[in-house]
């Protein structure tokens, strides 16, 4: 049986790497897309090291250096994927830029950068991959790592998250709007788009390097890996246009034990909506 193919952006480390390895273990060939071809103490891992890990799991992998701000490199990413594998079944838009400052402290150049990386690049990659997904008998899935549009004191997202992060939240909510637009435009056409957002902070080098909390405040990326795997199992004609929260989605599927996702055993991380003081600039 031919392996399905997933493009994962920001896949050289952290959450992206975890998703890449999780799909690799489950018979997906992976296109590892990221800027990183060298590593450092604070940012270990490269596209080549992750591709090698996937191959050691028994799946194939293609490492493509990609700066998602550059339209030509996104186009080249899709072209190389098709040249190598001849199909695209899933796109995981995981790459992201972080800028948490007040509006008055956000130069327009920073606003442009985070919107280029987050909302624009994810839109562009999805746009280029959809025509190839349309040719697949089983269609395709597009996943945005972005928050729900629901505004109010609601689980993982509330209006307090805008304070000190307005430009960032605009860029992330744009990703969710792209998913919803795709879901509506391709309803019943075998292509699904959904957004996925964590209930709690997730261990990543961004959190570590920006000193955002401690391990007892985080869950392992495994919870997002399990969500992605389960999303990709769904019928794209029946499961699309959802704004998913990781914990709520897994509860819907019957999961009851979330202690396995704790970074510190016995320490249940707080919900995003309950720890906004920790995130203030």
From TrEMBL:
<dbReference type="InterPro" id="IPR002347">
    <property type="entry name" value="SDR_fam"/>
</dbReference>
<dbReference type="Pfam" id="PF00106">
    <property type="entry name" value="adh_short"/>
</dbReference>
<dbReference type="InterPro" id="IPR036291">
    <property type="entry name" value="NAD(P)-bd_dom_sf"/>
</dbReference>
<protein>
    <submittedName>
        <fullName>Short chain dehydrogenase</fullName>
    </submittedName>
</protein>
<dbReference type="InterPro" id="IPR051935">
    <property type="entry name" value="HSDL2"/>
</dbReference>
């Amino acid at each position: 049986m031919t392996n399905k193919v997933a493009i994962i952006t920001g896949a050289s480390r952290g959450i992206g790497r975890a998703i890449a390895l999780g799909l690799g273990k489950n018979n997906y060939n992976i296109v590892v897309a990221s800027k990183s071809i060298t590593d450092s103490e604070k940012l270990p891992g490269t596209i080549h090291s992750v591709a090698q890990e996937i191959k050691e799991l028994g799946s194939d992998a293609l490492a493509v250096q990609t700066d998602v701000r550059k339209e030509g490199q996104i186009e080249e990413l899709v072209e190389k994927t098709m040249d190598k594998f001849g199909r695209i079944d899933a796109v995981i838009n995981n790459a992201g830029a972080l800028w948490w400052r007040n509006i008055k402290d956000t130069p327009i150049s920073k606003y442009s950068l985070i919107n280029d990386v987050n909302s624009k690049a994810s839109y562009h990659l999805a746009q280029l991959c959809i025509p190839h997904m349309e040719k697949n008998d089983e269609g395709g899935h597009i996943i945005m790592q972005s928050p729900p549009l629901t505004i109010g004191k609601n689980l993982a997202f509330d209006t307090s998250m805008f304070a000190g992060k307005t430009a960032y939240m605009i860029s992330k909510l744009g990703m969710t709007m792209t998913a919803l637009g795709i879901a509506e435009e391709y309803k019943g056409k075998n292509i699904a788009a959904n957004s996925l957002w964590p209930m709690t902070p997730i261990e990543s080098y961004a959190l570590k390097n920006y000193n955002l909390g401690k391990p007892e405040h985080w869950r392992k990326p495994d919870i997002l890996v399990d969500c992605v795997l389960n999303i990709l199992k769904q019928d794209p004609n029946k499961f699309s246009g959802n704004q998913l929260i990781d914990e709520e989605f897994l509860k819907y599927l019957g999961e009851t034990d979330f202690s396995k996702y704790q970074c510190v055993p016995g320490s249940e991380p707080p919900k995003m909506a309950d720890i906004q003081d920790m995130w203030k600039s």
